[in-house]
Amino acid sequence: MNRNLITLVNTPNEPNSIIVGVFNEQQIIGFISGLTLNSGSSTVQPCYQLLVQKTKIFGIDIEQCFYIAEMIILPEYRSYEIFRDSLKLLEREAKNLACSRFCFLTVWREENHKLKPANYKGLEPLFIKNHYKKTDLKTQIAWTTVTDKASSKFQKNTLELWLK
Question: What is the pLDDT of residue 55?
Fold first, then answer.
């Protein structure tokens, strides 16, 4: 694999945002994106609201926090190295935006969730290896969720907060 990482900073619709694209040759195989937590974007509001309530507990200056919005890599290319390298590049670029803390939300699902693939490997070990810590803070956000192989419904989903 001939892997390349390309960074786009300050996208047109979201100032203080970063996208890291992961490529194999000319094919995009994944990306990781985020923006400053104080951007005012609706994307960061659930995380922002959680941290505003708990800043004294975690000692976080929200002005210095970067929210990681998406981490997607095609299944056939998933590896610790690709995740680590793209995350480190995103963090390095975020530090150029005066961010020294990082956060993201993950969807919580039951261990025996009916749509979980048989060979599913959770991402928690990757997060922990990269010095992120899961907090006890949770929030709920509603979106259309696949409920089985043939249907979906609009429902609340529980998300857990991770910090670095």
Answer: 64
